[in-house]
Amino acid sequence: MSVLTVDDLSFELKPSTRRRTLQITVDRSGELVLSAPPDVEEERLREFVLEKRFWIYTKLAEKDRLQKAVPTKSYVDGEGFPYLGRSYRLRLVDEQDAALKLLNGRFMLRRDSVDTARGHLIQWYSARAKVWLWDKVQDYVARMEVQPVGLKVQDLGYRWGSCGKGDWLYFHWKTILLPPRIAEYVVVHELAHLHQPHHTPDFWQRVERALPDFERRKIWLAEHGMDVEGI
């Protein structure tokens, strides 16, 4: 038994005379296994890992999300809440005209709204996400030759976005919690789906033409996207 290490990923190598192709699996504990014919050179193994890197990080993130208890926020003074990649501290106030505001670098929450704070945050995030994401869509419609009908922000479970019938775009409200350059990648990803519903080579070429460094952004999302869970 041997081990192959590529950057921060380590694989248990499983040579098999019955295999004709390379295969990566992520077992229940998160261990990585690379199965290959016995005569494949190490250089080719490394190339294959790099080709599948995004898929690997995505699978590891999914397993982390399922296995780890996501810490939930407490709506108390000093708790931090993300917005476009930055953390803003919460301050409880006795009086203000809205249940929740972002003012002078702090989220201001009225004390009588603490019990319903999560709902107010989701509503606040969703409203900002709709405006920010739509503005970002407009930055790319011409160069990507698309014209979406509109945009909706809602809870999409584990998906960041989707492209629906009639050229509608859908985004998870948590997209607005990500750093701007990562949220921008989510936008471009969904715009590319207006041309191609599946992740074909043509799809990724369209993404790359719009965002030449898209791969770094999607890897960051796969590795760190779950950091905004627990709101």
TrEMBL record:
Q: What InterPro entries does UniProt report for this protein, alphabetically?
A: UTP_pyrophosphatase-like, YgjP-like_metallopeptidase
Kindly give the CDD domains that the UniProt entry links to this protein. Answer: M48_yhfN_like
Annotated YgjP-like metallopeptidase domain residues: 20-224
Q: What PANTHER family does this protein map onto? A: UNCHARACTERIZED PROTEIN YGJP (PTHR30399), UTP PYROPHOSPHATASE (PTHR30399:SF1)
This chain's protein is named YgjP-like metallopeptidase domain-containing protein
Provenance organism: Acidovorax delafieldii
